[in-house]
Write a structure and sequence with these properties.
Helix content: under 10%
Largest sheet: 10 strands, antiparallel
Mean pLDDT: 87
Distance between the termini: 36 Å
Low-confidence stretches: 1-41, 47-52
Oligomer: single chain
Structural class: mainly beta
CATH architecture of the largest domain: Sandwich
Number of strands: 32
Strand content: 35-45%
Amino acid sequence: MKKLSVMLAVALAAGTLAGCGDKPSNPVDTSTTPDTIQESTPAPTQEPEEQGDELAAGTTFDSVADFNTEEGQSGVWQYYFSGDNGETYDACGSYDEYPDASVRGWHPWEGSYIGVGFNDNVEGFLELNTDGVSTDWSNQMGVLAFEAPASGKYVITAKVWNPWSQACDAFTFKKEDGTVVLSVDMAEIIDNYAYVQPTDVQMEKGEKLYIYCNSTDSSWVSAYIGCTMVYEPTDDSVYTVPEVEAREIPGVDPDFAQEAAYNAYQNFDKEDAEGANGVWLYASTTDGSTFVPTVEYRETDYDADEWFSEDGTGIGQVGYLEGEYLELNTPGSGATMMALGFKAPADGTYNFSGYVFNPYSQSADKFYAVQNGEQKAEIDIAEYTSKPNEYSFEAEMSEGDVLYFYCPSTTEGGWVSAYISVFVNEAE
């Protein structure tokens, strides 16, 4: 991939970006990802040098290196949450480590995934989580805060990222008095991180600067930031924007317009789950050998039109992911997995092709295709978080045979929303 050092516009004239842009984190498993995104972790900030009662010019405070695991509201970096889009803030009261999801950090209360902390798979950044638009306290968002240890000018430098292509608003930097110092549009910062244009902010001792990134709809968002604050810089080097390192992105650009005799997305059947109206079936399985038809079709209030299993797991079309994919859910390893079936309309050899996608970088390794207990294909999905993986295979089928696709979770309690498109043609 070419070097990335493009300047991106932001919402305020005060702030621009340099970089490149084209889950879950997920509200159930909070964006754990099998493919570790390597970013260097900065060395801890040195203790500030004092000159009498004044802070030494050039002192730098780093939100990642100086992350405070002991006290959430003590020191220069502090951790809050807001339910009214940054109008008011409450202290995060619980520091938790969730090894099943590779996340650790400050949360409003024990068991919550909202807050500020680390995702082990996205190194060099803090993860700020929100469970939807935070306007009336029905949803909350994590807020990072910087409390000025001395009065004077600080320079904000930061790198930001929306790697799961989620419905993010801007990264907002707001002073206690409500002044927005910097606003960085996160919509296109997907394929790689970007640097914020260094921005001056005048602060009084003890004054706070709040930093957050809200959702633009009901969806979960995990936004990433590595922020530094430089006190009274001693030279202009702090204003130099670093070059973004290139990132190789696995996957292909999908072509959903290809011709197919049968198309799983376009022929999605909302009337019958057992193939009465066509070739597609919607079922669940716990072992990949026995498949049980779904029991209910619903159009939900979270933009998902899906068939649901007896225990409430869904398969179907969603409006929160661009592209012609069906969503197949599973709530964790060993739990009910949703399955998409193709029932052969006649004897013959069929070519199956399409794409699988793991946009929220969840705990899934492969899609499996099975027919009459025999595995026909396994399709890698783990690393395909920015672009989908392409697949193709053939299967000989008798009339009425069913070939099922399903995608297990690899983590107990780790929710997976895996995505698949399927095009079927008779083999030549």
